[in-house]
Write a structure and sequence with these properties.
The chain has 216 residues and is α/β, with parallel strands linked by helices. 15% of the residues lie in helices and 25% in strands. The protein has 4 helices and 13 strands. The radius of gyration is 18 Å and the shape is globular.
């Protein structure tokens, strides 16, 4: 339906999920799906002086970095977005005490707060698909332009952290895209190596936002 080629640019340099990797956390299936839908995929780096997101990027994807970005990179992303570019930023739970403070600050400036937690789902639905409680279920997508075609699709999100919408800042507005069921919790203590236990006094009950969109 859209004959023009579109380019999905994937940021590299921080241990992101690999486009060529076919096992485990690899993004090869995502690459294949995108290229089957008239996208070109390529890796880009912003680790250089006067770095800028390439002009041919239809969307910039930051896919699960294991190390934080530096100010030089976030500034390039800010300029790209403020000029009308699109960015898809996906952050994994910080299980190994990986800090994403620089990315978090950039997102907070866009009214998106990424929480330091791990979402668990107590519905048991994950076991039906061979996973576990660390794959929270999403049964409803909002009627946003990004997700409206998925509104009747149930999806599991393995190893997810929650996000919240902060106070509006300037010309930026943020909206919920999708979230978990009430049978979920965002747990704070998940790095000890001990079996996960829910503490109702400390942990946040669902429903929880897993994805939001910020728009200028």
């Amino acid at each position: 339906l859209k004959p023009d080629k579109r380019t999905a640019c994937f940021l590299t340099g921080h241990g992101e999920h690999d486009l060529e990797h076919t096992q485990g956390e690899g993004f090869s299936a995502l690459k294949e799906s995108l290229e089957g839908n008239n996208f070109v995929t390529k890796s880009v780096s912003l680790l250089e002086k006067n770095a800028a997101v390439p002009a041919d990027c239809t969307v910039l994807v930051v896919g699960g970095p294991k190390k934080d970005l530096i100010d030089l990179e976030t500034e390039a992303i800010r300029k790209y977005v403020q000029a009308g570019g699109r960015a898809l930023i996906m952050l994994d739970p910080m299980i190994k005490n990986v800090s994403t403070k620089t990315i978090d600050k950039m997102l907070a400036d866009w009214s998106v707060n990424v929480n330091d937690d791990l979402v668990v789902d107590l519905s048991g639905i994950g076991k039906l698909y061979g996973t576990d409680e660390f794959s929270p279920l999403v049964t409803k997508y909002e009627s946003h332009v990004i997700t409206r075609e998925m509104r009747n699709t149930a999806t599991l999100f393995p190893l997810a952290r929650s996000v919240t919408i902060g106070a509006a800042k300037g010309d930026v507005s943020a909206e919920k895209l999708f979230g978990t069921t009430p049978r979920s919790f965002a747990i704070k203590d998940f790095r000890s190596g001990k079996p996960v236990e829910i503490d109702p006094k400390r942990d946040t009950p669902g429903p929880l936002n897993l994805g939001v969109a910020a728009v200028y």
